[in-house]
Amino acid sequence: MSELRRIYLDNAATSWPKPESVYCAVTHAMRELGAPAGRGTYAEASEVERLLRETRHETARLLGVADSRSVIFTANGTDSLNLAIHGMLRPGDHVVTSMAEHNSTLRPLKQAQEHLGVTVTRVPCNGEGLVDPDDIRAAIQPHTKMIALVHVSNVTGAIQPVTEVGKIAVDHQICYLVDAAQSLGHLPFDLDATQADLVAAPGHKGLLGPLGSGILYIHPKRESELMPIRQGGTGTQSETDTQPDTLPDRFESGNHNVPSLLGLRAGIAYLTERGVTTICHHEQQLAERLWQGLREIKGLQIYGPQNALQRAGVVSLSIDGYDPQELALLLDSHHRIQARAGFHCAPLVHKQIGTNQQGGTLRLSVGALTTTAEIDTTVEAIGDIAAAHPF
Ligand SMILES: Cc1ncc(COP(=O)(O)O)c(C=O)c1O
User: How many angstroms separate the Cα of 201 from the Cα of each of 94, 183, 297, 359?
Assistant: First the structure.
C-alpha cells in the first residue's frame, strides 16, 4: 500500500473516518454485550435494549420528534425508502417525483409501476440540478398519493426546495416522502418546516454510524396507512402469529443490527455535542474552498447550483479529455485521493445536467471530519492532472 496518507472524499457513499467513540461502541457491542435487542432478560440483553431505546430517543431528538416510536430502524437508506414506497402505495395511485432522485427511490417506484399499476410523473430539474416546486404542483393529479423528493442530490449537491414542496403536499393532502440521505447530519433538518410525512435516511452517512443502519420517520397521521413490507419475529407478542400493530415493532421484524445501531448512537452523540449547525458550516466552507479552487483549473467543469447557498458538500466535475473513471483511478493511484466516478446510482439527473454522454461525473464529497489541508491537496492534485491533459 502507498506511503501517502489516505484522503477520503467519498462521504456521500458512506462517511469515513467515524468519530473514535463509534468504533468503541461497535467493539463494546460485539465483545462485551453480545446479545440481541428485545429478546432476553439477562443483564447484557437488558443493557442492549436500554441502549437501543436511547438510540431511538436520540435520533428522534435530532429530528425534533417528540415520540421516539415514530422512528423506525432499517438496514440502510434504501431499505427505508422501500418501506416508505411499497408500504404506502396501492394499485391506481399516482406519484410525483423528480429526475434528481437516487435509484433507491426510482427503482421501487418503477417496480410499483410495473407490478402494482401505480403511475409516476418524474418532473425535470434544471441544468444546475434544481427542481422547481411549480413543476411539482403542476404534476399533481386527482389520484396523487405521494410526492417523493430528495433533499440533497448525491450528484450535484443541490439542496432542493423541500419546504416549499411540503406546503404543496399539505395543501393537497398528499403523503410527502423526503429522502434525507445526503442531508441528515450534514444540514440542520427542520421537520416542522418541511412538513414531511416520511423521512428516510441511512445511519452510516451524515449520522456517522457504521454501515448497516438506516431510519424512517413516520408521521403519526400516516402510521395506519403504511403497511409493513416484512413480517416476522419482533421479540414482542410472541404468543401470536399475527404481526404486532404497535410501533416500532410493526415495521421492525427480525434481529436488529445491534453493533451498527449502537455505533449510530455514538455517531449521533458526537453530532449533538459538536452541533449540526457547526458541522454544516464546516462542510459548506470546505465545499466552497473546493469549488473555488477547482473553478480556476483550465478544462474543468463543475456541475450543480452556482449559488453557494443552494448546494451542500457534494461536488461533481469533469475534465476535458478524461473519462471520469480514469480520473478517479489517477487520483487514487497517484495521490491516494478517493472519490467516486460514474452515474452515482442517479441515472436521470445526468440527462438534465448534460453529463450522460461522458459517463457521468467525478464526485468529491466532504464529511464532518474532512480537513482544509485535504481539500487543498485535492485541488492541487486535480490541477496537476488537468495540466497533464492529453490533448
Ligand atoms: C440520495 C440518496 N438516497 C438514498 C441512498 C441510499 O442509501 P444507502 O446507501 O444507505 O442504501 C443514497 C446513497 O448513496 C443517496 O445518496
Answer: 23, 8, 35, 27
Ligand 1 mean position to 184 CA, how many Å?
12
Residue type at position 189: F
Indicate which atom in ligand 1 lies nearest the CA of residue 211.
10
Place of cell 393537497: 172
Q: Say yes or no: domain 20-274 is CATH 3.40.640.10.
A: yes
In this structure, the residue with its CA closest to atom 16 of ligand 1 is 154
Just give the CATH number of 7-18+276-387. Answer: 3.90.1150.10
pTM more than 0.90 = yes
The pLDDT tens digits along the chain (391 residues) read 567 899 999 999 999 999 999 999 999 999 999 998 888 889 999 999 999 999 999 999 999 999 999 999 999 999 999 999 999 999 999 999 999 999 999 999 999 999 999 999 999 999 999 999 999 999 999 999 999 999 999 999 999 999 999 999 999 999 999 999 999 999 999 999 999 999 999 999 999 999 999 999 999 999 999 999 999 999 888 999 999 999 999 999 999 999 999 999 999 999 999 999 999 999 999 999 999 999 999 999 999 999 999 999 999 999 999 999 999 999 999 999 999 999 999 999 999 999 999 999 999 999 999 999 999 999 999 999 999 975 5
- Ligand 1, atom 8, lies closest to the CA of 77
Residues of the chain with CATH 3.90.1150.10: 7-18+276-387
CA atoms within 13 Å, Cβ hemisphere of 302? 24
In degrees and rounded to multiples of 5, residue 341 shows phi and psi of -120, 150
Q: CATH 3.40.640.10: which residues of the chain?
A: 20-274
